[in-house]
Amino acid sequence: MSRTTKKRCFPLWIIFILVILVIGLPAVLLYSDIPDLSKYVLDDSKPEPVDEPDNTRAELEEEEPGEDYEREISDPFEDDNQKEVENKITEEGSEDKEELVNDKNDSDHDHESDLKVVSDGDYLLTLVTKETTLKSRYVPSNLQPIPSYMNPSYDMQLREEALWHLKELWDAANEEGVTLSIRSAYRSYATQKRIFENFADQHGEKEANRFSARPGQSEHQLGTTVDFGGSNVDFSAEFGQTDQGRWLAENAHSFGFAMSYPEGKEHITGYVYEPWHYRYIGVDEAVEWKESGLTLKEYLENQPQYFD
What we know:
This protein is an alpha+beta fold. It folds into two domains: 79-114; 115-301, Muramoyl-pentapeptide Carboxypeptidase, domain 2 (2-Layer Sandwich), CATH 3.30.1380.10. It is 42% helix and 8% strand. It has helices spanning 12-31, 57-61, 67-72, 79-91, 94-113, 160-175, 189-203, 205-208, 243-251, 266-269, 283-292, 296-301; strands at 116-117, 132-133, 143-145, 157-159, 181-184, 225-229, 257-259, 277-280. It has a four-stranded antiparallel β-sheet with strand order 5-6-8-7. The N and C termini lie far apart (147 Å).
């Protein structure tokens, strides 16, 4: 009797496991070495944090009204000049700096205590000289923007009545072929303070006060005063010899504007010749002033004045 021989076979499930081990294990070992890059990917759904400003809203509200506007104004000085002065003070030491500040404050206090304080700057014939002062918080009423066709050097303002007559003056000059530009108009107390201090740092207070007014003593704060230009010698004595300067000297009074600081009258006005600087005082008054032959200061001294 013969015996049949059977071949032994591995079950299929064992073969399947072996195949997985042979093929899959190397792949697992390979990909296990790849770093997780998800932490390096920016999540576009979440904006990056923005640093908060140093000033809080409360701190900003404590600033003087209009200060932002004043900062926009084109200044005739470079920041480097102020930095140079600040650096010089710093080099001298904090003790010397404190002494300088105290001396200056005492000097300013003594100076201001001797001044007559103007009651109402809106009065067109208000006397503004080195012996009087406008209040630091005084802002003219009815300030209006100077239109762009007048070529202002920056955004400027003037009182409504003065601006109305300035437009008439402008049209009359333009009809005669004279092109003007407005270089300066209303300035706040704070702006004038910055301007004068810059000049004083460069030239000394005494010299600076010959061609720049102390804060509170500038006719520009009245909102009725204009610095004219339009030539290549603006803000110089030579402006008086230009077409613009000559036309203004001959005609500005007919529109209510008077030259505040004429030539050769520094001993009366306290300021050097400024053929570009005109103040509106009213048409009838300006005509009367012109006929009087007086400086504007002398003419206004003969008008009613009101002080605190």
